[in-house]
Amino acid sequence: MTEWDLSKFKGVFVAMYSAYDEAGDVCEDRVKKLARFYVHSGVKGLYVGGSSGEGILQTVEERKRVVEAVMQEVGQELTIIVHVAANSTKESKELAIHAETCGAHAISAVPSIYYRLSENAVEKHWQEMIDCSSLPFIIYNIPQTTGFNLSQTLFQKVAAQDKVIGIKMSGESVFDLQQFKAHAGKEFLVFNGPDEQYLGGRIMGADGGIGGTYGVMPELFCVLDQYITSNQLEKAQELQFHINRIIKKLLSYPSLYGACKYILSLRNIETGFPRLPLLPVTQQDYPSLSVLNDEIKQLINQYTKEMERVIQ
Ligand SMILES: CC(=O)N[C@@H]([C@@H](O)[C@H](O)[C@H](O)CO)[C@@H](O)CC(=O)C(=O)O
User: Fold this and answer.
1) Residue 134: helix, strand or coil by DSSP?
2) CATH number for the domain including 147?
3) For 47-64, how does the pLDDT look when each residue is reduced to its tens digit (9 = 90+)?
4) Does residue 127 sit within a domain?
5) Which residues are 14's β-sheet partners?
């Protein structure tokens, strides 16, 4: 039996985008407004400083300011998972200790990037973070960006510890996701990573998901999750298809994050541009993004109404 309350980690987690001011600096007010925006959307929590949050492009001090702002604003209302991995173990530990000081609910980390690391090195990197705070730890496996493909052997070694409560599976294979779930068992959380496969991931064992595009349509992912939980799989498939049409369009812009941030601005949530080398969208993209925003709003309207009818 695990000592952790896993129920607060089951569901939809928005991988929060960065929030900068006009000069491109971290802006606490904007971080808070963005975090607050998700409170009423029905999501379970936020994943802070991950890929979508551009943690890896920010300084340690900036990352701390983001976490502090999120915790102050919504730390009592949502479950907050903080991605603490930096390239050095030293900085990652500093961020892990800081997350605990701020009252975050869990930490999470990718392997260090750039160097081709052995499994022993990645294990040591993660273990130092696990040991330096008393927070539960969630492995972040995203081989397509880190170049490190987590093996079952290393996974089972790391996951055997009570403090390691889950894994965020951002690789594309639903089979891999299922294999991790099968080995770790019921009392171990698996988060679906690819938003395009939320339905597939959940059916194959994921307890919820962490995703970036949830940020512009959190309501749709919450309804999708409810369809799955209540076994309405045809409705779930229909909605996932709509979502995927949106995601495919979002992926056609100079950067996914730039497109999503612009859509947020159309919903009165200013977050600035993504930080270089991630490209912003340009003025010529604005009209089509505005059309896409209307499409998202229409779907949110339609599906939240349908869900209300089902619940009544
Ligand atoms: C590679 C990547 O960035 N994957 C995203 C997805 O949310 C992704 O943006 C989405 O599926 C669109 O392809 C997440 O798995 C990453 C994530 O949650 C994060 O921001 O840490």
Assistant:
1) coil
2) 3.20.20.70
3) 999 999 999 999 999 999
4) yes
5) 46, 211
Q: Which of 274, 251, 246 is nearest to 52 (CA)?
A: 274
Total-model pTM: 0.97
Q: Binding-site residues for pyruvate, please? A: 210
Check if 168 is active-site.
yes
Both tokens of 187, joined, read 């009392």
For residue 197, which of 233, 230, 243 has the smallest C-alpha distance? Answer: 243
User: Could you report how far apart the first and last alpha carbons of the chain are, in Å?
Assistant: 36
Task: Bin 268: left if φ > 0, else alpha if -120 < ψ < 50, else beta.
Answer: left
The total number of structural domains that make up the chain: 1
User: In this predicted model, what pLDDT tens digit does every residue of 259-281 receive, in sequence order?
Assistant: 999 999 999 999 999 999 999 99
| Ligand 1 pocket residues where CB is under 6 Å | 15, 47, 50-52, 142, 145, 170, 193-196, 210-213, 247, 256
Nearest atom in ligand 1 to 210's CA: 18
In a domain, 303, yes or no: no
The phi, psi pair for 271, rounded to 5°, reads -130, 5
> Which residues span the domain enclosing 102?
8-228
- The count of residues in the chain is 312
Rounded distance from Cα 170 to ligand 1 centre (Å)? 7
